[in-house]
Amino acid sequence: MPIEELTSEGIASQCPGRENVSHEGPVRSASRAHRSRILGTLSIGVIALLALSACGSQAEAEEPEAAQAEAGGPEAAEAEEGETEAAEADAEGAATITIEDDHGTHEVSTDPQSVVVTDNRSYRTLEAFGVEPTAAARSLMDAQTHAYAEDESILDLGNHREPDLENVVAAEPDLIINGQRFQDYYDDLRGLAPEAAVLEFEPQPDADLVEELIRKTESLGEVFGKRDVAAELVEELQAEMARVQDAYDGESTVMGLLTSGGDMSYVAPGPDGRAIGPVFETFDLTPALEQEGENESHGDDISVEAIATANPDWLLVLDRDARITQEEGEEYSPAAEIVEESAALADVSAVENGQIVYLPENFYLTEDIQAYTEFFRDFADTLEAAE
Asked: In angstroms, rounded to a whole number, what is the distance separating the alpha carbons of residues 146 and 131?
């Protein structure tokens, strides 16, 4: 840069945006004041250094702005920061936990994107958790009980007799909750959705049914991060169980019956008896009839005379048709009508004293922790009223 240009005007022209830079004592005044050339040269050097310093400071100030402009401005920087936070949140949401079911341990996502459910004992629990399945066996649901039943956005897997397993593929699940009537399709489901975790929590042969319901509920609470809701369901069940245990005298005889198609069937005490059978062990109930069962699903044949001879103090009755037949529009005989209007049972202690507990109408289609809670509540109410 020529010395002549190192005036305040020259500096301004070389450093855009620094028009207001000024310094006392311009160089041209040195010769007029007879100052030495050395002093003038020194003054020029100082001015030059100040000019360069000013330009450098300006460049540093402009550098972040240029970087922001290149990246798209402050808005782009904020957007990039938001994307980073979202990515971190996604990474946290994609975490897995180890869950143990009937088949071993599984690594299950804590934020499954597509859930397929075939196990009717899990529907109401998942509803309580706020889980929306992509596919489920809606044809097996009780429309009066389940919010899912008439939700057309949920792919229908049909029923266990004629399942529509193509909808499993269409759902592209990363988690399948299988069981009960669909238990035989476990291997098929694994083959159709090899990337999905398939969980089953079926009551084990040597385990208490109620404890198995609790295991299922708590495990699903772990999967979906709803431990508090699961705990509430378990506490409600245990509260009604305590009432039954306190009210039952330990001596009164009990018999389980299942009604269907206008007939009565015998439900054997123990794990082989449908729904009611396992409850004998849960509460240490005294059976009115010691007869082994052969038909776990629908009970065993028994004559009204055999029931009358056993003369149970209490009857626990499951109405199989209460929901199924009504929904299909077929002729229906309620369990209360079949049992209480039978002339052969008129003198049976349970009938005479009104000590009959009918399981919830939706029980045959639900059999979940909520259904057993209601069953035990009704049993406790009747036991306490008889004291």
From this structure: 13
pLDDT exceeds 80 at position 195:
yes
Please provide residue 98's backbone torsions phi and psi, each rounded to the nearest 5 degrees.
-95, 125
Residues 280 and 365 in one domain: yes
**Shared-domain flag, residues 275 and 195:** no
Average pLDDT value for the chain: 81
pTM equals 0.75
Let me know if residue 76 belongs to a domain: no
Q: How far apart are the first and last CA of the chain?
A: 112
- For residue 26, the 8-state DSSP code is -
For residues 182 and 137, is the Cβ–Cβ distance under 8 A? yes
Cα 275 to chain centroid distance, Å, stands at 25
DSSP state of 204: P
Q: Is the dihedral of CA 176, 207, 221, 126 positive or negative?
A: positive
- Report residue 151 as tokens: 């939700």
The residues, any chain, with a CB within 8 Å of residue 167's CB and separated by 6 or more, are 135, 155, 156, 157
Are residues 251 and 320 part of one domain? yes
8 Å CB contact between 118 and 155: no
Domains held by the chain: number: 3
More confident residue, 37 or 196: 196
Q: Is 12 helix (H, G, I), strand (E, B) or coil?
A: helix
Residue pLDDT, tens place only, 68-95 = 444 455 555 555 555 554 445 444 555 8
Q: Contact, 96 vs 77, CB < 8 A?
A: no
Question: What is the spatial distance between Cα 122 and Cα 366, in angstroms, rounded to a whole number?
Answer: 8
Task: Give the C-alpha separation, 183 to 203, whole Å.
Answer: 12
Q: How far apart are CA 355 and CA 387, in angstroms?
A: 11
Say if residue 129's pLDDT is above 70.
yes
In a domain, 209, yes or no: no
Q: Which domain holds residue 345?
A: 236-386
Whether residue 43 is predicted with pLDDT greater than 70 in this model: the reply is: no
Residue 225 inside a domain? The answer is no
Residue 275, amino acid: A
